[in-house]
Amino acid sequence: MKHLALVGGGHAHVIMLEQLIIKPCPDLKISLISPTKKQAYSGMLPGWINNTYMLETCQIDLQDLCLRAGVRFILGKLKQLNAQQQQLVLHDESALDYDLLSLAIGSQPNLVGDIAVPNTWVAVKPFDAFTQSWQTWQQQLNPKLPATLTIAGGGAGAVEIALAARHVMPYQAKLDHQIIIYAGPNGVMSGFNSKVRHLIMRQLKKAHITLVHEYIDFSQPMPASVAQPGPQNFHLRVSTAKPALYFGASELALDADGFVLVDEFQRSVSHPNVFAAGDICSRPSTPLQRSGVHAIRAGKALAYNILVSAKGSESGSSPNSLTTLQAYWPRRNNLYLISCADQSAIASYGVNLGLFNMNIALHGRWVWRLKNYIDVNFMKRFKAK
Predict the structure, then answer these.
(1) What angle separates helix 194-206 from helix 156-166, to the nearest 10 degrees?
(2) Which domain covers residue 297, as residue numbers?
(3) What is the DSSP letter of 8?
(4) Is the pLDDT of residue 252 over 90?
């Protein structure tokens, strides 16, 4: 019996487990390896920070999902991947052979250089480590003293977390709880159109959030301008993503930044029995944004292509010769819903009209209700009926 190893509980693999619950594959041995039993849904994380959602509401129970899908769940973390030998080595040094492999481990924070003060900056990923650190900090805060949240990063995640944090660190003239975003020279949300950025800047100003157009150099000691480590201060990294270090020795084809190169079927361009989806992959000719939106949409095609490849291997066909695979083409325009944490949200959407492109940016409570409806119903799909 062929063995399919799924590494990571990313969005694409969650979608694949959902497909396997609907249509089991008893002729294929499947294992999922994850360092945590529960996978946080990034879209609802700001809502957890501002107490809109309970933490359990924002988590997918991977172990339960695997049980219902007929998949063996392995609690562990990947240490080494050898694509030529088709073998995985976990952190406990146990080895796992595979016939087919799929990677959906997400990305890691871009930890550049040596941090001068160890454990000073908390990375938003992995989410389980972040939520534990955040809860510990909130519990130890002295409500009678000012607190400071410093965020390094200028993307949508950094903005959503900053706005969400303002609700648990209310602005008061006499008790100045500061929230500061170090976004870099291009400011916040540089990948979005000017209309969206204008709405975002208005929200940041309204929430009394300070924006600094500088990068934090993590290879140097913490600048004097940044609030120094202490029980009232929290330093969060929501910075550029990077791939896992073990990919460098995996013999998989990688792009210049170290992400796994895949074709339109989400297969490795060098090893057709290896698939990858989500933040850890890239395409030679098709730009892929590192977004959960694309990982979710790629999940269904990923599941189909892996199962078709497994059947082809069993019949003696080469995965390279299969012509029935489904291509995944990311949409040029996507709807992004950015939470403002005050029961309102900003919608960003681009419309391609041939020679003309129209960018839509809307803000309102109805946008948040739409986002809440989408997020809550997405999570309900993975709960046991």
Answers:
(1) 20
(2) 2-107+243-321
(3) S
(4) no
